[in-house]
Amino acid sequence: GGTITVDIGLGYSIAQEIIIANSLSNYQISQITSYDPATGVMVFGTPISTIGSGTYTLWVVNLSVVSNSL
To answer: DSSP of 20-54, one letter per residue?
Structure first.
């Protein structure tokens, strides 16, 4: 897990799955453990899934959407 600062005032909530991506070949999916809308500080848990590796300074954070068929 870890901590990342995103925009303030967003609607993230605990237990939502997020994708933290640098590129199509370097990203991870984790669950939010806390988000402070006043500061933008988000804490996330151990990755559920990891693709690629490396150390980067630029990340894009968004909700991870899983498509299920009924």
So the answer is: EEEETTEEEEEEEEEE-TTT-EEEE-S-SEEES--
